[in-house]
Amino acid sequence: MKNRFSVKIVGESGQGINLMGEVLSKAFLELGYYVFGYREYPSLIKGGSASYQLDISAQNINSSFKSSNVIIGLSRIALSQYLSDISDGGLIVHNVVKFQKSEAENHILKSKNASEEFIDTNSLLDKLNLNYRYANTFLVSLIWARLGFDVEILQEIFKEYFKERDDILENNLTCINLGFEEGSNQSLVEHGLDKPEKKANLEIMTGNEAIARSAIACGVRAFYAYPMTPASSILEYLANNAINTGMIVKQAEDEITAAQMTLGSMFMGTRAMTATSGGGFDLMTETISLAGMTETPFVCVLAQRPGPATGLPTWTQAGDLNLAIFAGHGEFPRCVLACSDLESCHRLTQQAFNIAEYFQIPVIVLTEKHIAESYFTKDTNFENLPIIRNLVEGKALEKLSPNDRYQFTDSGVSKRWVIGASKATFLANSDEHSEDGSVTEDASLAQQMYEKRMKKYTGLLKVIPEPTLFGKTSGEFLLIGWGSVKLSVLDAINFADKNVSYLHLEVLHPLDIAKLSNIMGRFKKYIAIEQNYLGQMSKILEMELKISFTDKWLKYDGRPFFVDEVIKYINKL
Amino acid sequence: MCNGCKVKYSDYYSDNIYTWCTNCGNYAIHQALKRSLVKLKIPPYQVLLCFDIGCHGNGADKIGGYRFHGLHGRVIPFAVGAHLANHKMPVIAFGGDGGTLDEGINHLIHAVRSNYNITFILHNNGNFGLTKGQVTPTSPKGLAMNSNPFGLIEDQINVCKFLLNLEPSFVARTFSGNIHQMERVFVDAITHKGFSFVEILQACPTYNKVNTHEKIYSKVYDVDELDDYDPQNLSQALKVSSDLDNKIATGVLYFNKTKKDFYSRLPQRLNRNKALIDEVKNY
After folding, report:
1. Chain B: residue nearest A270 by CA?
2. pTM of the full predicted structure?
3. CATH of domain A204-378
């Protein structure tokens, strides 16, 4: 494996693991490196064991290794859980007093030729009369020194972080200096990374922040949600920025309310959004059906985590594809998009609104905990898409009649206008209705209106993003995946020098059968890679394309696909 | 509400034929609603009427205005979302006693708590009509209906009394047999800034054989008839609202003008004059 290195900080929730991860990330960015930050943490406020793994490279990376070259350990429980993740020849530095390794642990360290070093941070901090919680800063600085980097970079980042907390900053700077001094006296750790070009404006960002920022940029003026991991950080980001943006950000009493408020605001003529995870989405499904019937645009971010029920609340999965595609009673057109990285979080959020408004349908934007909460390196500004609203405006408003709202058209799309903008009033009716929304039970009218709505699929297929083929355009094996799978598969292909093709689906519904058949027809064997038990995407492809898969690699243990596992898998092909 | 607008009763006319039962209270409610909108000079294109599912909702296409007919129990959060998107347009939501107090009771409580500036009108006929005669939380204990053939064993919710305990912004009760009172109460409710709750006691001529039109008529009185009634006195309102058996208090039972509505409390909307509907492309 060339030009990658990883450092994992492990400890208890509440020991400042995330802060250290972020600080270290920023320090690497300052040097021009790309980082990918992957967090594991339990569904607890304090205690348990948590980790923040930082993968570092001179090239752009978007995935984690299962194993780490350096592990910084701050608690016994966390060390036990993560000790086996050490790489061959790796280094574990920790401050666990009287760390008695089990036979199995000894065996792991021996077989991997890894070293374990204890640093007595308690005594050092006692001497300085500092709280033991500063051990994290001390150990991070020690490792920074052993990697051979400059102490000033770390100091500057802490100064920025604690610029309003002089006392905390001073204590941290003391620990940085002490840790750096200690580390400088120890042997150097060879990271083997290429020297990167120094780049301006590198920043770390989570997938959820990319979605939130994208929503602000495309004119979303209201956001309604109920807190649920891993969607909550969208709510948090938008709330924190509400004074500047003027966006109404409301924590609703439940997801039913959040969905209905979103629909109400969209109906009125603004852009509104909601976000939730699977359990909350369950509660929103009746509203999605209502959006389908009343032809009201609706956008929901569905941030997946493992279920069923409460499942593994703080871990990752992509098991809600069937839910997104099939949720809601009755039949109606919808669109299901799936993000994978920062760029797609940005683009697909904006595209979701354009599609929802143009076609007057519900759009579901899928993400996963692994995308939502992982820290990606952002090196460019993403372009905003033009805002497409498909609203009747200006003088044309005067010529409208109530029947225009649900008028039968070839495309199935009728005119829509902001409530109050025209004297032509209408009824948006959840009952089957005629062109002005009046209720009907007439068989032929009901059938015609049903078909009008379903016709939208024809136009929709023309504007949805095409599936992207990475690698050779024809060959023996074609890997097919969606969501976060792309991250580790592309990194594996880049780093393993292996010529494998990967087909990535961003639109999971509707499927462009012709395009998919054209791409897939050039390969002999198909392999699905998915983060769920049933192989939900592959089952849909089998059903729609009448094909079969040679293999399905399915993972549903709450962990993402790690790049080293993917390389191993590809090499066996 | 509309300077220089000429609004006529017939502006709210619809070609669709009513499908309610003979003697249903909804006819009078529509009449009073139209009269109040005309009185307030609100033309049909400057109001949003939101309907829940139930008999009242079947009237959604029998009246003018911008209208939305949504899902059972969900009319309040939908109307609130619409109101926040354009706080300049009056939003009036309607629900039945079943949808509002069974499936949607959480929305009602939170709407009072959040004090959104919308009007909510509860059609309370004490039973489910459209699903053909089942009990609701406002059905009297002991009532035998399709789902409870041996008599309802649960207690009745007195909705005005319940909401008054939440220190609401505006609570009124009226009777579908009194068009003049309904019109006056609707005007007050729509004009009030904050969450205005109006309960209409109405008969269901087909299914509710206990609380008939005549029986409700014989019990109701207007709080205006009381000598010393102060609708800004919460404890007085609680006291008069309690009795549903002998003398039933109607009229504007309580209002509090000092309570700010939700939108006015939003720090991010201070000094912003536009509504959200005008900000999508201009943000």
Report:
1. B277
2. 0.97
3. 3.40.50.970
